[in-house]
Amino acid sequence: MELASRVQNRLEIEDLGRVSYAEAFRIQNARHESVLAGRGEGDGPIGTVLLVEHDPVITVTRRPGVAEHVIATEAMLAQHGVTLADTDRGGDVTYHGPGQLVVYPIVDLNRMNCRIIEYLRALEEIIIGVLSDVGVQGERDEGATGVWTRDGDEFAKVAAIGVRVRRWVTLHGLALNVDPDLAHFGLIVPCGLHGRPVTSLRRLMGDACPDMGRVKKLMVQRMTERFQTMADEASVRRAGA
Prior knowledge:
Layout: E1 6-8, E2 11-19, H1 21-37, E3 47-54, E4 57-60, H2 74-80, E5 83-86, E6 94-96, E7 100-107, H3 116-133, E8 139-141, E9 144-151, E10 154-166, E11 169-177, H4 201-205, H5 212-240
Parallel strand pairs: 2-3, 4-5
Antiparallel strand pairs: 1-2, 3-7, 4-6, 7-11, 8-9, 9-10, 10-11
Helix pairs in contact: 3-5
């Protein structure tokens, strides 16, 4: 399946490949403006989903105290080839890098008649569905946004979520650890959660780990189906109002 610039069920998919965090953020903002400009077109796209692998980067939100969760020194970051970037999403500090699928849905929550908390739960549901497709059981943690799984005796995070909503159109999104360098998570306190381990599909599945192309296809399928259902249900409610 060709992912780049393909429209599926009124959701446009763009596979950006590997890009810097700054470049992906620039593209997000451009797509955000396009979604806003398309409001009121009825059958037009719900929005755009960007698929990305980032150059190694630690992103730090503006919440007080978050910068303290970067525990690596400048020298350590340089040694690992990891940069720092400010971000305006919600949440705390996290790491992005090659082998991690980052997904940025820029979608109109008005079109889906969706509250922010419902959107976050939908993202978790989508990730859990993708994990199920490859034979991994994903779980929610009532005290922490994201998706978790059993890694031996530990309850480990396999996917992080952090979003921003501007004029009811979303930015940022989710990061699923397929086969990243897990040592890089040791440079931070992931999501500000002390003592909570991070895992990946490679660590969980070994040689059975799916490649990035397969995970992208599963993510696109799950996300388009879930968002389309939400948009269709919202249309039915509006029609009956």
